[in-house]
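To: structure subgroup
Subject: Chain for Friday's discussion

All,

I'm putting the inputs and outputs inline so they're searchable in the archive.
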Amino acid sequence: MTETELDRAQKRYDQARARLQALKNREAAKERKLDTRRKVIIGGALTDLASRDDNARAMLDRLIRNLPREQDRKTFEGWEPEKPKPEDPGPSA
């Protein structure tokens, strides 16, 4: 059976749709990775700030206590931001 012009056009159309879907999937994956990176950076910055600032520590504690999912709250049981180590004042003058 010979391929008609309509069959060839349908095949090209299907291939174009598949390429479009692949591009959309790659873009969505790229956006998810960027979103995750932003969350990690913000989380690290907040944790660092909470280790140095009592108000930030209290805010972080409230955020954790008010997480809607129990399993998320359990992740933080027994955890608290590291307290900064006192800096070496150097030799006394």
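Points worth raising on Friday:
The helical segments are 5-52, 54-65, 70-75.
The CA atoms of residues 39 and 45 lie 10 Å apart.

D.
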